[in-house]
Design brief:
Largest sheet: 6 strands, parallel
CATH class of the largest domain: Alpha Beta
Radius of gyration: 20 Å
Number of domains: 2
Strand order of the largest sheet: 2-1-5-6-7-8
Number of helices: 14
CATH architecture of the largest domain: 3-Layer(aba) Sandwich
Distance between the termini: 10 Å
Number of strands: 14
CATH topology of the largest domain: Rossmann fold
Length: about 350
């Protein structure tokens, strides 16, 4: 539950940080900006401050090498009122160990289904990975999760001290106009995001749909998907106004992932007036709670959902997104933080 603790100096430690492009980075960067605008001092420590090596099977992700000593100095020099450990990578493990050795309180967040990602890449079962993550987060005074259904799933797996923390969307950047003129037969069905195995993009590209398919983004599966689907338009990576135009230029945004914990891109698409089609799973069903049928469609038949979403009202999509601003997200994040001093039982 949110507390009356109001930290003025907040440190966030994250293995996901710029120049990576993903929902975790966008969330943390925007929340940090909002907190600073609210008068808080915020320090984000990412891999850009350390020697790194590429992550196996995903070289775009940098893993920090032996960060303990330098990270300890950064924490001590900044002297935070609150420490938030955002990820379970080398930096997250180092920050967790620093706090635990000193009996200091901290929070974590569950952004990524690493167990399922490992299974998708290696075939290894999810059980051992979830056991490790349960221990990792169990040392914190609270673990922030994005959706009610994810909270229920993690609680069923033995996670404790789970706290609700939703997401927001930049309503000034993601707007319905102007729309990209793809120069392709309509309707245009688009996917925007990382091009990686866990995103299940082939489930979208295999669909028998009218018009055209567009993929916006880059990642380790890009070359393979280009080879397998020559009729698909691969638009590459986009940012800022060009990204907003890409969302707005689609007739339907198709989100084929079954493993995302939220799906920030869903809110971005809706803010651009584009209806969403997705599986009825954690993430999409939470973001579209009570609005499926008005701003998009959910279901186990992704083709049927994509076709149904064509009939959604684009003005209603924008209006729904306007209920999800970043300021409220940042305020909720801050309310869950705990004092960076001797930890007490939650």
């Amino acid at each position: 539950m949110p507390s009356d603790f109001l930290p003025r100096r907040i440190m966030i430690v994250s293995d996901a940080w710029t120049p990576q492009v993903n929902g975790v980075v966008r969330t943390l960067r925007t929340v940090a900006e909002e907190l600073r605008a609210m008068g808080r001092a915020v320090e984000v420590v990412g891999p850009d401050r350390f020697r790194t090596i590429p992550c196996p099977t995903y070289p775009d992700i940098a893993l920090s090498l032996l960060p303990d000593r330098k990270l300890g100095r950064l924490i001590a020099d900044f002297a935070p009122d609150a420490l938030h450990v955002a990820t379970e990578g080398p930096l997250g493990m180092s920050a967790r160990a620093y706090a635990m050795r000193r009996g200091l309180g901290f929070t974590t967040s569950f952004h990524t289904r690493f167990a399922e990602y490992i299974e998708a890449r290696t075939g290894l079962p999810v059980g051992p990975a979830y056991a490790w993550m349960r221990r990792f987060h169990g040392a914190a005074q609270g673990t922030l999760v994005a959706t009610p259904s994810l909270r229920e799933e993690l609680a069923a797996r033995g996670f404790r001290n789970l706290r609700a923390w939703s997401r927001g969307v930049d309503l000034a950047q993601f707007v319905p106009e102007p729309r990209e003129d793809w120069g392709l037969p309509r309707p245009v069905f688009a996917y925007v995001g990382r091009v990686a195995v866990e995103k299940n993009i082939a489930a979208f590209l295999d669909l028998d749909l009218p018009g055209s398919k567009v993929v916006v983004g880059t990642g380790p599966m890009l070359a393979e998907l280009k080879r397998r689907y020559p009729a698909v338009h691969f638009a590459g990576e986009r940012h800022g106004a060009a990204l907003a135009r890409a969302y707005a230029g689609a007739d339907v945004f198709v989100f084929p992932s079954r493993t995302d914990t939220f799906g920030l891109v869903i809110l971005e698409a809706l803010a651009c007036g584009t209806p969403v089609a997705a599986y009825d799973v954690t993430g999409p069903k939470d973001v579209l709670a009570g609005a499926a049928g008005t701003v998009g469609a959910l279901g186990e038949d992704l083709r049927a959902a994509a076709l149904a979403a064509l009939g959604a009202d684009r003005a209603a999509c924008r209006a729904y997104a306007e209920r999800h601003g970043w300021r409220a997200c940042a305020e909720l994040f801050a309310s869950h933080l705990v004092p960076f001093r001797a930890a007490k039982a939650a």
